[in-house]
Structures are given as structure tokens and as C-alpha cells.
């Protein structure tokens, strides 16, 4: 509440500054003079009429006709001593120069006004939506043939040292122009990233094949890629959204009464051969899980550190309750109908993080010619770019490519240099610690046949979320306890609140990305 | 942090233009019916600078009334002329302070405020401050366009030229107190 009050005062002060800079900014004088009175500003309050001998009439309520200049004012001599005042009249022929002076508004205050307005906008945004801020692990940028594009986010679910894990992300859009491939890793969030390793996996395949990874770490070469002939969700056909990996995503909005409410997408395929098939899913999360994580930290407030420490120490209760959230939201369940008409769950695709789309393969074991596939997922929790049926040929082994070099290309921007150097010196050899704003450029020497390789990025590490000041204002031990004791109820309680900000979360999220060189 | 801000404030203020006649020029509102010429500071190539009220500009000379009396200055000897048409007031200090306050206030918006808003205040606030300091500025520079002389003439006490009847020994400088 204290923070909100402070933000309100800051907003009010900035608003005042903007208004005063615009309306009460400095004035300037606009002067025009000419021997022809028609060419001066007749809106001018005062008229100055100069005579040939250097004397001057300064007149208020003035008028000029063909013979006389009249008005109320003073006549000044050459030293500007007033020699006559009152209603004055001077023959127009004696005047050698007429002059008008008006006040103009200077634009000097515009710069400050723009700054103040931007400040107001940001402050209002922060007050309304402190949990839509950019977050989620290291981001990786790789060339797509035209520019460096965001292609992967590493170890998004590794929020503690004990949860350190390896993450493999497909790079289907990577287009290295030579054997030398660069990967730009950025820390663009208010987080500390501990990066153990970043490698590239190059998986060779035949020219007509693609390679996909399963969530258990296997790589499969696939020959035929079949588009669905029907793809039906609650809103109707979504075929145009999911038949290509093109960035056009199918997404739905959350249930306003329950964030864990499920929906289904039915897919019909027409495979002509029997064999082993798998469903290819290219997807990323929406902001539901990010919101719940940040909201949990908010409710914990000053106790967040203690609770995370308990989880880090292996407190089974805390860890089991945290897992409840993951289970309630779940991944994208894949169900397939076998030849007898029985639906069987084939597996689940799960990838934490709302930033980069990853490609998963879920094997449809035991269904040799799958025609009907159903996806079951939490409504509003996933954005799906591509769904296809892949005929699997064989398992393939990747070639592990370690980086040949790593260069620090951008310095972090928020912390004193000493503290980051201390943090870096405490890290084990080979481990990289990055802070917000840090950027590293990795270089990899790919195999000779790199153009016939499917590329994946393998990263390992964990990250520590920074507690935000705004979050502390919502500290609420009761709601924090309910999150642990009653995860299902929390999904229902938080649903209306999330719904209020759902539409603007995407925009808000990307606006708060911390970086200086966003492509 | 404190040192940086003081340095910044000093930097912003130092980039502001000097104001001539600040003690006795009227503000913009009161300058509308001011019968005198503006205050100029004339830097000469060889002699000491001259500061006073601009009386008139002829084809080859600039006429100024300084506290000692009438001064006729050959245009060819002028290196630079700077002046103010009215008292710009406290806007420069107000804008400098507002820039610093805005920058400090941007911290309250967290990292986005520091990354996006603080530099915005720094750049645009400095531009505003410098603009405000030049709000009443007129100038002529010998290395620049000579046409500027014509534009300056309208700010003189005698914009139509020095009157032939003017007795140069009895010309008085404008009052040096505000009225």
C-alpha cells in the first residue's frame, strides 16, 4: 500500500510537471515591424509608432485610419522620457515605423512534458499490473537468415539451484549462413541467471526428413509430415492457425471462473500408411503460469525468501504443493483413438515459458494409423503455432557442439560493478552468472554437413527471480497459505483477477523487457 | 549517486546561456510596451567588450548606450554580439530541478523507469532547460550570415535608424532598475 501511495504521488507530481511545462511554460515575444501598418499584427495589445526624430508613441486601445494613429498611452522622447500621456493622436504621415509585440508560447517545455507523460504512463502501468513484467530465464537470439531473432528461452522452470536442469529447445527457424553460427544470450529480466552450459545439438538427417525431440530427450527422424484435415476447437475450425509453423498462433482466453478449466482441440488426419507416428506440437505458454508464480511471490511478500529457501532445502510439503500448480494447469495432453475406438493418452507436451515457441514430439505409440487425435489443455494457457502428424523413421543421435568462444558484449545495467564481479567470482569455474542487461555472444563451429542438420539449443542452469518492490505491497499470509493448502481454490479465486488484465498482458510483458539492443 | 546528480545539475546549468541585463530587463509580459532597446554584449576583435542598450544599427555601425554613454562600434570590428530581449525568469532553474526530480522519480517505476524514463528525462529535460535559457536570446556572429544584422535592428531603441537630431553626448542608458 505504501508503494502504491508513493507511486500515486509520483504520478501526481509528474502530471503536474507535464501540465505546467505545457501550459505555464516560458513565453516568448513575437515582434513585427514595418512602415506599412497593414503588415503588423493587429491583435497586439500595444502599438509602437516611431517618428523620424526618434520619439516613440506607445499606445493601448489603438487604431489606425488613413490619416491618424490614435490610442491611449505615452509619447517618449529620444531618451525615452514620457513627455505626454493620455489620449493621443498622431498624423500617420509622421510615423516612419509601426511595431507590434505579442506573446508567443515557447516549445521549451515540450521535452519535459514528453518525459513526464511517459513517466505517468509507466507509473500507471506499474500500479495496475506489476505482474506482467518481463521474466523467464535467459533468452537466445539466432539468425533466421535476415536478422537475429528470439528463438529459445533456457531452463524456464529452474527457479532455484535445486531445480537446475537441462533444457533442449528446437531452433527450426535458425539459418546459419556458414559453419560458424553465433548465438546471442541475453538476460532481459529482473533475474540473476546462473548458466552452467550452452551448447548446440546438430542432428543430421536425410534431405526429405525432419528431426524432432521428445520430452524424454530422444531425437526422432520423421519422413512424412501430415497436416490435419480438420482441427476443431471450441471456437470452431482452427486449421488456418495451426497447419504451418509461421508464427500465427491459436490461443484461447481463460475461463473467468477457473484458471485450470480444460478445453479440447480435435484433430483429424488421413495417414495412408501404417507405422509409428508422433504428433508434432509447436507451442509456448501464455502468461497464466507467470502470473501465478509472481502472484504467489506477492502473497508471500517478505516471507518469499524463507519459502523459497525451504523449497531449496528439499521441504517435501512446499515442493509437493508447488507441483500441484503445475499439475492443475498441466501441459498439452495428447490423446489418440485406436482402431477399436478407445481413446488412450499418448503423452504430454510441456514447456515452461511464454517467450519462445518450442517444438515437441509426442509419440502415438500403439496407434499404427492414427486418424483422430485430441488435445486436452488448460483453457487460455497455451499458444499453439503448429500441429502435424509425423511418420517416424528411427531414433537419431545428435552431435554435441560446444561453443568455440564466448564474448561479453553488453554489461549489466542495474548493479554496481563490484557486486557483479563478486557474484561472478563466487561461481564455480565454467559457470556464468548474468545480471539484467548482460549479453553474451557464443560462437559455434557446426559440422561440415550443417545444412542437412536439425539444430537444437541445449542450456543448463537455473535463475533467481528478483523480488519486486511492487509485489511486497500485496503481502497476504492468508492468501499465501491458501495457495499452498488449496491450489484448486486459488485457481478459481485468481481467475477473475487474471481475466481483468489478460488482454493487455502480452503488450505489458514485452514492454518491460530489459535490453539495450532489442532486434 | 549524489555526486553524479550534482555533476549532472552543474552540467545542465553550465550549458545554459548567460543572460545579459537580467537585473533590469522586464519580463516578457512587461516587455511588450517597453520603449527601450534590448541589452547586448558585443565582443570585439581587438578592444574590450561593450555591454549596453542597443540603440540602432546602420549599414556600417552598431550603436550602443553603455553606462558611460554613447558608443559607436564599427560592424567590421564585431566578433560576436549576444543579447537578451527580456528577462527569462526562473525557468532555467525550474527546468533543471524538474529534470533532476524527474530522473529521481523515475526510479520509483523500477527497472523500466531507470532504463527508459531516466534517459528520457536526461535528454529531453536538458534540451528543455537549454531551450528555456535561450528563450530571449538574440545573436550575431561574424562567422555566420551577415543578414543577421537586419534581423537584430528591430530590437534596437531606434529600429528605423539613428535619428539625425540625436545629440550623442546626451543619450542615456536605459534605467538599471526594474520598473
Helix content of chain A: 10-25%
First and last CA, distance of chain B: 44 Å
SS field, number of helical segments of chain A:
10
Strand content of chain B: 15-25%
- Output the structural class of chain B: alpha+beta
Mean pLDDT of chain B: 82
Strand arrangement in the largest pleated sheet of chain B: 4-3-2-1-5-6
Estimate what percentage of residues of chain A fall within beta strands. 35-45%
Average pLDDT for all residues of chain A: 85
The low-confidence parts of chain A are 1-5
Reported for the largest beta sheet of chain A, the result is: 6 strands, antiparallel
**Judging from the principal axes of the Cα atoms, what is the shape of chain A?**
elongated
Radius of gyration of chain B: 20 Å
Lateral strand order in the biggest sheet of chain A: 1-6-2-3-4-5
Number of strands of chain B: 6
Oligomer: heterodimer
Can you walk me through this structure?
The complex is a heterodimer of chains A (519) and B (179). By secondary structure, chain A is of the alpha+beta class. Chain A has ten helices and 28 strands. Chain A has helices spanning 2-23, 110-128, 239-242, 288-300, 304-312, 316-329, 417-426, 469-472, 477-485, 487-511, and strands spanning 27-34, 46-51, 56-64, 68-76, 82-91, 95-105, 139-143, 148-153, 165-170, 180-186, 191-204, 210-213, 219-226, 230-233, 236-237, 250-251, 262-268, 277-285, 332-337, 343-349, 358-363, 372-378, 382-396, 399-401, 403-410, 432-434, 439-445, 453-465. A six-stranded antiparallel sheet of chain A has the order 1-6-2-3-4-5, with no helix packed on it. In chain A, strand 14 and strand 15 form a beta hairpin. The two termini of chain A are 37 Å apart. By secondary structure, chain B is α+β, with helices and mostly antiparallel strands. In chain B, strand 2 and strand 3 (61-66) form a beta hairpin. In chain B, helix 1 (2-14) runs antiparallel to helix 3 (91-106) and helix 3 (91-106) packs antiparallel against helix 4. The longest helix of chain B has 24 residues, at 110-133. The interface between A and B is large, with 65 and 55 residues.
Amino acid at each position: 500500500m505504501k508503494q502504491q501511495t508513493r507511486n500515486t504521488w509520483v504520478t501526481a507530481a509528474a502530471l503536474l510537471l507535464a501540465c505546467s511545462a505545457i501550459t505555464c511554460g516560458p513565453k516568448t515575444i513575437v515582434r513585427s515591424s514595418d512602415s506599412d501598418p497593414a503588415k503588423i499584427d493587429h491583435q497586439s495589445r500595444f502599438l509602437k509608432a516611431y517618428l523620424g526624430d526618434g520619439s516613440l508613441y506607445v499606445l493601448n486601445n489603438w487604431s489606425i485610419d488613413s490619416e491618424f494613429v490614435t490610442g491611449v498611452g505615452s509619447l517618449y522622447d529620444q531618451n525615452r522620457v514620457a513627455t505626454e500621456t493620455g489620449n493621443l493622436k498622431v498624423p500617420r504621415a509622421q510615423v516612419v515605423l509601426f511595431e507590434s509585440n505579442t506573446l508567443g508560447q515557447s516549445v521549451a517545455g515540450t521535452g519535459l512534458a514528453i518525459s513526464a507523460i511517459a513517466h505517468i504512463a509507466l507509473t500507471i502501468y506499474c500500479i495496475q499490473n506489476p505482474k506482467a513484467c518481463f521474466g523467464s530465464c535467459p533468452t537466445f537470439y539466432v539468425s533466421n537468415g535476415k536478422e537475429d531473432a528470439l528463438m529459445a528461452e533456457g531452463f524456464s522452470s529452474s527457479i532455484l539451484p535445486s531445480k537446475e536442469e537441462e533444457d533442449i529447445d528446437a531452433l527450426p527457424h535458425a539459418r546459419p549462413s556458414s559453419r560458424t553460427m553465433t548465438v546471442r544470450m541475453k538476460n532481459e529480466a529482473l533475474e540473476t541467471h546462473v548458466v552452467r552450459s550452452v551448447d548446440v545439438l546438430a542432428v543430421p538427417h536425410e534431405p526429405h526428413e525432419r528431426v524432432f525431440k521428445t520430452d524424454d530427450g530422444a531425437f526422432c527422424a520423421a519422413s512424412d509430415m501430415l497436416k490435419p484435415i480438420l482441427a476443431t476447437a471450441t471456437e470452431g475450425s482452427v486449421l488456418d492457425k495451426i497447419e504451418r509453423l509461421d508464427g500465427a498462433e491459436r490461443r484461447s482466453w481463460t475461463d473467468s471462473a477457473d484458471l485450470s478449466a480444460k478445453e479440447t482441440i480435435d484433430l483429424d488426419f488421413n495417414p495412408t500408411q501404417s507405422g509409428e507416428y508422433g504428433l508434432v506440437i509447436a507451442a509456448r505458454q501464455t502468461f497464466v503460469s507467470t502470473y501465478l508464480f509472481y502472484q504467489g511471490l506477492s502473497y508471500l511478500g517478505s516471507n518469499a525468501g524463507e519459502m523459497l529457501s525451504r523449497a531449496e532445502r528439499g521441504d517435501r510439503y512446499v515442493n509437493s504443493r508447488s507441483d500441484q500448480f503445475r499439475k492443475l494447469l498441466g501441459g498439452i495432453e495428447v490423446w489418440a483413438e485406436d482402431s477399436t475406438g478407445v481413446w488412450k493418452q499418448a503423452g504430454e507436451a510441456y514447456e515452461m515459458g511464454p517467450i519462445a515457441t518450442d517444438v515437441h514430439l509426442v509419440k502415438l505409440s500403439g496407434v499404427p494409423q492414427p486418424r483422430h487425435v485430441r488435445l486436452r489443455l488448460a483453457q487460455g494457457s497455451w499458444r499453439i503455432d503448429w500441429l502435424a502428424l509425423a511418420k517416424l523413421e528411427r531414433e537419431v543421435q545428435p552431435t554435441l557442439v560446444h561453443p568455440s568462444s564466448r564474448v561479453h558484449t553488453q554489461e549489466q545495467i542495474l548493479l554496481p560493478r563490484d557486486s557483479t564481479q563478486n557474484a561472478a567470482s563466487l561461481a564455480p569455474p565454467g559457470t556464468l552468472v548474468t545480471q539484467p542487461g548482460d549479453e553474451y555472444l557464443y560462437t559455434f563451429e557446426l559440422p561440415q554437413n550443417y545444412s542437412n542438420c536439425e539444430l537444437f539449443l541445449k542450456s543448463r542452469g537455473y535463475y533467481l527471480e528478483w523480488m519486486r518492490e511492487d509485489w511486497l505491497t500485496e503481502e497476504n499470509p492468508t492468501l499465501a497459505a491458501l495457495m499452498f493448502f488449496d491450489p484448486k481454490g486459488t485457481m478459481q479465486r485468481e481467475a477473475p483477477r487474471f481475466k481483468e488484465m489478460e488482454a493487455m498482458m502480452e503488450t505489458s510483458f514485452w514492454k518491460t523487457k530489459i535490453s539495450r539492443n532489442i532486434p | 549517486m549524489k555526486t553524479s546528480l550534482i555533476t549532472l545539475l552543474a552540467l545542465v546549468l553550465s550549458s545554459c546561456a548567460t543572460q545579459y541585463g537580467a537585473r533590469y530587463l522586464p519580463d516578457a509580459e512587461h516587455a511588450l510596451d517597453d520603449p527601450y532597446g534590448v541589452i547586448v554584449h558585443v565582443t570585439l576583435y581587438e578592444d574590450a567588450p561593450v555591454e549596453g542598450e542597443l540603440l540602432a544599427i546602420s549599414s556600417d555601425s552598431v550603436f550602443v548606450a553603455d553606462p558611460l554613454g554613447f558608443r559607436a562600434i564599427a560592424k567590421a570590428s564585431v566578433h560576436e554580439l549576444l543579447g537578451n530581449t527580456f528577462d527569462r525568469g526562473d525557468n532555467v532553474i525550474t527546468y533543471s530541478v524538474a529534470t533532476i526530480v524527474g530522473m529521481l522519480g523515475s526510479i520509483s517505476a523500477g527497472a523500466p523507469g531507470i532504463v527508459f524514463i531516466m534517459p528520457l528525462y536526461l535528454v529531453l529535460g536538458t534540451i528543455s532547460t537549454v531551450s528555456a535559457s535561450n528563450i530571449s536570446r538574440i545573436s550575431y556572429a561574424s562567422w555566420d550570415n551577415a543578414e543577421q544584422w537586419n534581423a537584430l535592428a528591430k530590437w534596437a531603441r531606434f529600429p528605423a535608424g539613428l535619428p539625425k537630431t540625436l545629440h550623442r553626448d546626451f543619450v542615456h542608458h536605459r534605467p538599471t532598475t526594474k520598473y
